[in-house]
Structure formats: structure tokens, C-alpha cells
Design brief:
This protein is an alpha+beta fold. It contains 13 helices and 24 strands.
């Protein structure tokens, strides 16, 4: 599948869109202030060793000292010793016998700082590539547990022949399952070169220095997103184009050849209406060309996609109408999963079909479209209720979670109480407080819509309440309040 990659760069945000047949298929966003530290390698300096906690604080140049537990101190196994035996020995050795104050130590961040806690560190370095993870202090070749057992031994043997005798261990990631020898060899070369740079920096830079930073989104475009079908990679920043070209020329020369600096007058994302697509991808409803539509609901537990015919009446009979709508929906659902980066459990509720051959064709089309996804997916058949259950691996935050936050009015529920429901809640609260307190007056502070209801339709009930409790009730409109918010002020 031929594709073009558009990169829109600004100092605060990088956005990447993958275009196929003139339509946006994937979106990636990275914000400068929200980049994590996980994967970064530092030359740290041990500031304190705490035998009682079997931990040490390491100064890596951040605002707060980072934290190293004895379980994360890695020493390679001795000659003839197995990795499991080395780990057992290591866990029994107190931390005060493994590190000392003032020591310079190469460490990697395995958990970002949270609140008042510093980053968590490990002394076992791992460098992630597109297909492999390099373990320079190890000589083990591992394979992802998600790759079928029958293929693991074959992949391990291929890797051993490709690695040679240069040392270091590798873990094959899930997406290396169908990789060719040339792709694996290219990843090996990139990872070894990255490790050589880290070692050189550790010998020349002072303590508390950053030795290696996990690739930013621009660099990951070349590492992870460029494939044989990529025609062009257009960048709208001259400075970032030159930096990316230099990076690509050293590590990924084939990908670097596809780089272009975009000099057009129109913003680069306007070429394919990418911003418009982002707006649509944040909504619940997705319109299909035929007149049907999808409703996408993302929850904590799972994502549901409901298919509806809408105004589509183009087929000869009702069965054909449903079949054509479901076929188009199968393509649209697969695209929306990529576009919104939805992961976890996904339930697709296609329109009920009476014919088995129609079901088989829709399912085959759906699975065919899912094969285009670079993220691992698994889909079953139609259930007894006519649903298709599937999973898609979570690789990063979904587009909605990255760009949006829960509504301040509904707090993520998607609905708010009606003004009348809030008014009745206020009545009950005044009755409750009138039993406990005896103020001179009760004042209701609420949103304009609720106050308007008290002044109009509920005015008789409000007067009756005032007479019942024997106290005057006054009203105050507050435009800053949401519809469900209110205060009862005792005067």
C-alpha cells in the first residue's frame, strides 16, 4: 500500500499524518512538555545509599534525585553462570556492597517521576529498535511471548546467525514475527551504533549527564513508520528537515532518501484536510459515503462501534442495503481504530444479516482491512448476538485521551441533570438543612437556567417551601456555575 507521510512541526508540538489514497489513515501527536523520561540513559552519581531500604538515591541532573532499588541493580552473570542464577545471587547481595556514595553509574529510567517521587532507575540498559530490543550487558536472545511457540525457535536461530560474535543480547519484539533477514540486520546495526555512542559519551561527559534519549516522534517516523510503500516524507520545518536528514543518513539511509522539505504556502495539513479529520476523530458519529453511519463510544473497559443504515436506500432490496452498509462499515471501522488509536477490547455491532454468505464476506473484508494495521489485532467471528469481538494492542494513549479531558460540567459522564432535577435536589437540601439549622434566611446560588426555573415554573413550589420552613428563600444567579452545581447559603 503506497503512502505519504506529512510532518507538521512547531516548538511545542509535533504532528504526523499518514496518508493513503488521499485519506488520513493514522495520526501521531507528541507535545514537548509531555515527553516522558522512560528509556533515557544517564551517567548518574550516587548521592545516598540507604541500607535499611535496600535502595540508593542517584543524582541524574533532574530537580529530584532518582531512586534505585537493589532489585534493579544488574550485574552480568559470571562465566558459566546462568542468568537466573546471577539474578538470585544479586538479589541476596546487599545494595551497600554493590554501590557506594560518589560512584558514577550508568542508569536508565524505567518509571517517570510522579508527584513528589523521583524517577525509578535500573542499571540494566536496554535500547529499543523497530523490531528488536538490544541488551548490551547480556548475551541472551529472547523472543516475545506473543509470537507463536512454533516460530520462536526459528527466529532465535536466525538471530544467532545474524548477530555474529560481537556480543550483546536481543529480544525480538512482536512485530518482528514476519521480518526479513535484511530488516533484522538493519535494526541490529542501528542498535549497535546507538550503544557505541552511549559508551563513548559515558567516557567523555561528566556525571549527571544525559547519554541517550529515547527517539522523539520525528526520529521514530524513520524508525517505525517508514516502509517499502512509503513514497515521500514531507517536513514543513527547514531546521527539522535537516536534523532528520542527518539522523537518517547515519542510521536509516533508505528512509532518509524519501525526505522532502515542504515549502508550500498552505499549511501542510491543509493538503489533505488533516485538521478536519482530527475534529471528526474526536466525535462519536462517523458518516459513511453511502448515507449510513457509525457511533463510536470509548469507555474504560472497552470500545463499542455501532453500525446504522441511516439514509442509505441504494440497494435493490433490504438485505442488499444492509450488506452494502456493513461492507463499507468494515473498512471504516478498521480505519477509525488506526486514526483514533483505539486499543484493548473492541466490540463491533454490525447490522443483523440473515444470509450466512453475507456474514462471511463482511467478516473477510473486516479482517482484510485489519491486516493493514501496524499494531497487532485479533478478531473473532460473529457471535450468537451478531457482534464481532476483537482486540487491538495498546501502544500509546488514544487520540481522544491525548487531546481532550473530561468535561468540567458532566465530569466525563456525557450527560448532566436537567434544570428541573437540580431544582428538586435544592428543595430536598433546604428541607434537610432547615431541620438542623435555624438561619434568618436561605439563599440559593445556582446556574442562570436553574434560577430562571425557580422564578417561573417552580415559583409556586418555592413559595410553598418557604412557608413550610418558616424562613424566606432568596435567589442568586451565578454564571460561572455548571448546571448541576449549587450552594445553599445560610444568612
Amino acid at each position: 500500500m503506497q503512502q505519504d507521510i506529512l510532518i507538521n512541526w512547531s516548538p511545542q508540538e509535533t504532528r504526523v499524518a499518514i496518508i493513503e489514497h488521499g485519506a488520513v489513515q493514522e495520526l501521531h501527536v507528541e507535545r514537548t512538555l509531555e515527553r516522558g523520561l522512560v528509556g533515557n540513559v544517564y551517567l548518574g552519581k550516587v548521592s545516598r545509599v540507604l541500607p535499611g531500604m535496600q535502595s540508593a538515591f542517584i543524582d541524574i541532573g533532574l530537580e529530584r534525585a532518582a531512586f534505585l532499588h537493589v532489585a534493579d541493580v544488574w550485574n552480568p552473570p559470571a562465566e558459566g553462570e546462568t542468568i537466573s542464577a546471577a539474578r538470585a545471587t544479586q538479589s541476596q547481595t546487599p545494595i551497600e556492597r554493590q554501590v557506594f556514595e560518589g560512584q558514577s553509574l550508568m542508569v536508565q529510567v524505567i518509571k517517570d517521576p510522579i508527584g513528589s517521587k523521583g524517577a525509578r532507575l535500573s542499571t540494566q540498559i536496554s535500547i529499543a529498535g523497530r523490531l528488536l530490543v538490544f541488551l548490551p550487558q547480556d548475551d541472551h536472545i529472547g523472543v516475545s511471548q506473543k509470537i507463536p511457540l512454533a516460530q520462536r525457535e526459528e527466529l532465535r536461530n536466525r538471530m544467532q546467525s545474524l548477530c555474529g560474535s560481537q556480543g550483546g543480547g536481543f529480544i525480538l519484539r512482536t512485530n518482528a514475527e514476519d521480518a526479513s533477514d535484511s530488516e533484522l540486520a538493519e535494526d541490529i546495526a542501528y542498535l549497535r551504533k546507538a550503544w557505541a555512542r552511549i559508551k563513548e559519551a559515558s567516557m567523555t561527559l561528566p556525571a549527571q549527564s544525559l547519554l541517550h534519549q529515547d527517539l522523539n516522534l520525528l526520529q521514530r517516523v524513520l524508525r517505525d513508520l517508514v516502509g517499502e510503500g512509503t513514497q515521500t516524507i514531507r517536513v514543513d520545518s527547514r531546521e527539522q528537515f535537516e536534523a532528520l536528514h542527518a539522523f537518517g543518513a547515519e542510521f536509516m539511509p533508505m528512509a532518509a532518501q524519501k525526505l522532502q522539505h515542504y515549502k508550500g504556502e498552505r499549511p501542510i495539513f491543509d493538503l489533505y484536510s488533516v485538521d478536519e479529520e482530527i475534529g471528526k476523530a474526536l466525535g462519536r458519529r462517523v458518516d459513511l459515503k453511502s448515507g449510513g453511519y457509525l457511533i463510536v463510544d470509548q469507555t474504560e473497559a472497552l470500545t463499542t462501534v455501532d453500525v446504522n443504515t441511516g439514509g442509505y436506500v441504494g440497494a435493490r432490496n433490504f438485505d442488499d442495503t444492509i450488506f452494502k452498509t456493513n461492507l463499507e462499515a468494515a473498512q471504516a471501522i478498521a480505519r477509525q481504530l488506526r486514526l483514533r488509536n483505539l486499543g484493548g477490547i473492541i466490540i463491533a455491532d454490525f447490522i443483523d444479516m440473515g444470509r450466512e454468505d453475507h456474514k462471511e464476506e463482511v467478516l473477510a473484508e473486516f479482517k482484510k482491512q485489519l491486516q493493514r494495521d501496524r499494531v497487532k489485532t485479533m478478531a473473532g467471528g460473529f457471535s450468537q448476538l451478531g457482534l464481532v469481538e476483537m482486540t487491538r494492542k495498546r501502544t500509546r494513549e488514544s487520540l481522544a485521551h491525548m487531546l481532550c479531558e473530561p468535561c468540567a460540567a458532566c465530569e466525563g459522564k456525557g450527560i448532566v441533570k436537567t434544570a428541573r432535577s437540580v431544582a428538586y435536589d435544592i428543595f430536598r437540601e433546604i428541607l434537610r438543612e432547615a431541620r438542623q439549622f435555624h438561619p434568618r434566611e436561605f439563599r440559593i446560588v445556582a446556574s442562570p437556567k436553574v434560577i430562571e426555573l425557580f422564578l417561573d415554573e417552580e415559583s409556586q413550589h418555592l413559595a410553598g417551601l418557604s412557608e413550610f420552613i418558616g424562613k424566606p428563600v432568596s435567589l442568586q444567579s451565578e454564571t460561572a456555575m455548571g448546571q448541576e452545581q449549587f450552594d445553599i447559603v445560610l444568612m
